[in-house]
Design goal:
Elements: H1 3-21, E1 45-50, E2 55-59, E3 65-66, H2 71-83, H3 85-91, H4 105-109, H5 121-128, H6 136-151, E4 157-158, H7 160-169, H8 171-182, H9 190-201, E5 203-205, H10 207-218, H11 233-246, H12 252-258, E6 263-265, E7 270-275, E8 279-284, H13 295-308
Antiparallel strand pairs: 1-2, 1-8, 3-5, 4-5, 6-7, 7-8
Bound molecules: glutamine.
Length: 313
């Protein structure tokens, strides 16, 4: 951390959170998964950890929320570690869609059945079928354990209410999964694959958990505590590239211009981002903008990135 930042972040962060919080009223909490609609619309929290383990937080950083699409970054990494690049990129592409995360439009239009990338729902469902394990339960446990290691939090667990709520209402994801199965993209039973997907989306975290996971990516896969390699550098590179090109849905270009950091958002209002080599950052703000990203969270990141010149570009 540069001296300037050490001095300024802790004192400025609370006021930046409060000024960004005012955008919440222009956003909407997701409700297509009924349980998510219970989230507090005015909440905004942030947690930052630097490479030396110093942490800072402000606002509602203790709020628990589900990872949702943020988990897709880590199932991609685990699928790469389990199968290698050739197998994974046989099932999913490497390109942004420009469409909504749950769109089916290009699934049939371009290369039938092959999702454009692993961060849209269709791509992440295909990735769920590539997680190694002898049973759907074992596969889900491997994902949860991987995230427990990366977050350095052994008690990470599912939010079963959100899990059930999504599982009961996921007609669109179900239809995509059956379409993928029909095109030979999914291995195994469709419902088993969907169960793995719903479970990893419903892993419950705080901003500190996201910041810790992000810090591992910021350090190119190394544990901040022990220096041990938790993820091969090549797979971190792939994940970070997808975060830049597709991590903020079809607002990824705008986010790259305004903030310029690899990031992944989720429909519960979480954002995981990092300043490579320096910080892991976790944010929550359940009020979403029209593209589905945390409206206040994006505003807060724009302020931070501009103040400290964090853009990679
Ligand atoms: N954008 C998201 O976070 C979407 C994840 C959510 N579980 C879904 O499939 O719809």
């Amino acid at each position: 951390m540069s001296l300037d930042e050490i001095d300024r972040i802790p004192s400025l962060l609370p006021q930046w959170v409060e000024s960004s919080r005012q955008y919440c009223i222009n956003g909407k909490v997701a409700s297509y998964i009924p349980e998510l609609s219970k989230a507090p619309i005015e909440a905004l929290g942030i947690h930052l950890i630097d490479a030396q383990g110093h942490s800072m937080s402000a606002g509602d950083s203790d709020l628990l929320f589900t990872m949702q699409s943020i988990s897709k970054v880590f199932t991609l990494i685990l699928a790469l570690m389990d199968n290698g690049e050739d197998v994974v990129f046989d099932k999913v592409g490497m390109e942004p869609t420009g469409d909504n995360f749950n769109s089916m439009l290009k699934l049939e239009l371009v290369q039938p059945g092959i999702p454009f990338n692993p961060l849209i729902n269709a791509g992440a469902i295909a990735i769920s079928s590539l997680i190694a394990g002898n049973s759907p339960i074992e596969k889900s446990e491997r994902v949860l354990n991987f995230l427990r290691v990366l977050s350095n939090n052994r008690s990470l667990a599912y939010d079963m209410d959100v899990y059930r709520s999504e599982s009961e209402t996921a007609n669109l994801n179900r239809s995509m999964a059956y379409f993928l199965k029909d095109n030979g993209v999914l291995d195994g039973q469709v419902e088993d694959v969907l169960d793995i997907y719903f479970r990893h989306c419903s892993i419950s975290v705080t901003c500190a958990d996201l910041a810790q996971m992000a810090l591992v990516l910021a350090l190119n896969g190394k544990s901040p505590e022990t220096g041990e390699t938790l993820i091969p550098r090549r797979y971190v590179q792939i994940a970070k590239t997808f975060m830049i090109t597709c991590g903020m849905y079809n607002a990824s270009g705008e986010f790259a211009i305004q903030v310029g950091l690899p990031a992944k958002s989720g429909v519960s209002g979480g954002i995981l981002t990092m300043v490579p080599g320096r910080y892991g950052i976790g944010i929550v703000g359940p009020a979403l903008n029209r593209k589905g990203n945390s409206i206040a969270g994006v505003a807060l990141l724009e302020t931070l990135s501009n103040e400290f010149d964090w853009s990679l570009f």
